[in-house]
Amino acid sequence: MSWVDEIEVGDADGKLEAMYAELIAKRGKVSNILKVHSLSPEALGNHLDLYMTIMFGKSGLSRAEREAIGVVVSATNECAYCVHHHAEALRRYIKDEETLEMLISADGLETLEPRLSNIVRHAEKLTSAPSAMTESDLGELRAVGLTDKDILDLTLVVGYFNFVNRIAMGLGVTYSAEEMSGYRDE
After folding, report:
1. For the segment 9-36, what is each residue's pLDDT rounded down to a tens digit?
2. pLDDT in tens, 141-170
3. Which CATH architecture describes the domain 63-170?
4. Which pTM was predicted?
5. How many CA atoms lie within 13 A of 86 on its CB side?
6. Domain limits of the chain?
7. Collapsed DSSP state (helix, strand, coil) of residue 141
8. Where are the alpha helices (DSSP H) in the chain?
């Protein structure tokens, strides 16, 4: 559901119908953030390719770290849709409720274990004050074991979530309990 027209699964044809069928086969459903792209199947396909590369591609960042980045960026941007969606995914990896709440609220991040703390604080700064970034910010990431490839991956995840947050908020993408549950692992 959003503020723009969307093509429902049952009404899709051609390329969009095939994309929806593939999403349902892999994930069990089509999320609202993807359905909002339905008027432009090409953009939907490119979005999915980018998402799969950034979130599931080979990286020195764990899946949990990437989801944590997404949650913190989304919390910083106050994007409820993405916070809720990716907090659900993050719960698969982080079982400590206090840590989850810190990430979901983007508060108390400095008290997390050093590697995760540095990663998500970097993500928060890049989101809220990108012009304040300096080369020295990368030293803190290197100090906790991130390689330059990991730093690139971190930056790509931050950029991706800032992009998606603006799609969700700019088009009024909503979520419901039904939409948040029942996804298969991607």
Report:
1. 999 999 999 999 999 999 888 999 999 9
2. 999 999 999 999 999 999 999 999 999 999
3. Up-down Bundle (1.20)
4. 0.93
5. 28
6. 9-56, 63-170
7. helix
8. 14-27, 32-35, 41-56, 63-76, 80-90, 97-105, 114-128, 135-143, 148-170, 177-180
